[in-house]
Amino acid sequence: MFGVDAIGAGTREQARRDLRVLQRLFVLHAESLWETARTLVAQSFPNMHDAWMPWLDLAPTQREGATPRDTLIRALVAANEWEKQHNVLERYWATQGTGLFARYCVFRWQGHAEGLRGIVAPDPIGLANLIGYEREKARLRANLENFVRGLPAHDTVLYGAPGTGKSSTVKALANAYTARGLRLIEVRKEHISDLPIIIDRLRRHAPHFLLFIDDLSFDEHETEYKALKVFLEGTVEMRPRNVLIYATTNRLNLIRENFADRGKPSEDVHWRDTLDEKASLVARFGLRVTFMTPDQTQYLHIVLGLAQQRGLTLVEEDLKAYALTWERQHTGRSGRLARQFIDELVALQSGKSDETFTGA
Q: Is 110 domain-assigned?
C-alpha cells in the first residue's frame, strides 16, 4: 500500500487528537499569550518585563498565487472542528510528502555522506518565460503528465547545442508540476554511482521525483555511466514508479569515442563489444528530444518575445537590427544569446538612451 491507503487506524486517530490540540492552541488570543509570557518571566527577571514588543496584528505573508500548503492552512482555519479535517491532511501528505519533501520543492544530492539538501531559493523560471521550441516542450510536458498521473513515462535525454534552453526547460517543467507533488532532484555526474542509494531513499516517499542530470557526457576513462545503464535497464529489484530521469547533453553520443576505437586496439580482444557498449547508453532513454540551434527567424522571434515580457518599447525594426548586431559580435546563435541581448538592453534603458547601444 502507498499514500493514504498506507495510514493505519492508530495513526489516523492520533492525527485527530493532535489536530484537536492544535486548534485549541490556535484560537488562543495573541495578547493573552503575550501577557502570560511577560508575567511568568517577570517573576524571576523583573527587568525583562518589557523586553518584547507585542506580536499583535501581524500582517500575513504576501505570496503570488496559492501553494498547496496555503490551501491546507486555509482549510483548517475555516473548519469548525480540525479533528474532522484529517482527510484533508492525508490528501496533502499523499501528494506533497512529509518532512523535507514537504518543505522544499527542489533538492541537490550532495553525495553519500551528506545526502539530499533542500534548495531554499530555486530558479523560479516558468514555461511562459521560454520563447520558442513549442513542439519540444509539448513532448516533454506530455511525458511528465503521464508520470505524475501514475501512467508509464519515459526517461528522457534532451540533446542540443549549448544555450538552446534544455536545462531551463527541465526546471520550468518541474516548477509547473510542483503543486501536483513533483520534486526536482539535481544529481551531478560525479554522483551517478549513488543512484541505488538515491532510489532507495525515495522509494517509500509520496511525491513524484524527477532526477535531473545536467550536461551529461563521459570521457573514455569514466565508468559512472555503467551505474546509469543499470538504473535505466532495471535490475532484479523493482524500480519505483515515482522516480524518473531527465538528462541534458550537448553530445548525442554520451560517451567519448576516439577514432582509434574504430580500429582494433591490441589491449581489448573484444573491442567491438566495448564500442557497442559506449554507443548504447543513449538508446536506454525512452524519449530523446532535440533542441536545434535557432535560425535567424527563430532567433528574432525569441528576441521579440523576451522584449515583450520585459516591457521594452523599442520599435520592432530597430530591435531586430540591434539583435542582429549583437549576434554578429558574439558566438553561437541561441536562446541564451537572445536573453543576454535583452538583459543588455534593459540595463541600457534603465540608465541611458537606447541610442547608445553598439552591440559590443
A: no
Contacts 24+ apart (CB under 8 A), 236-241: 239/199, 240/199, 240/202, 240/203, 241/150
Q: What is the average per-residue pLDDT within 294-312?
A: 94
C-alpha cell at 68: 498547496
Q: How many independent structural domains does the chain possess?
A: 3
Least confident range from 84-88, 219-223, 349-353: namely 219-223
pLDDT at 259: 47
Q: Which residue has the cell 539530499?
A: 116
Residue 124: count other Cβ atoms within 10 Å of its Cβ: 10
- Report pLDDT digits (tens) over 71-111: 888 888 888 888 888 888 888 888 888 888 988 999 999 99
Q: From CA 348, how far away is CA 82, in angstroms rounded?
A: 55
In a domain, 169, yes or no: yes
Encode 299-335: b = buried (16+ Cβ within 10 Å), e = exposed. Answer: bbebbbbbbeeeebeeeeeebbebbbebbeeeeebbb
- What gap in Å lies between CA 96 and CA 208, rounded to an integer? 9
Q: Where are the beta strands (DSSP E) in 235-308?
A: 243-249, 287-291
Range of the domain at 69: 3-96
- DSSP H helices, 45-192, are 68-78, 86-96, 100-103, 134-148, 166-176
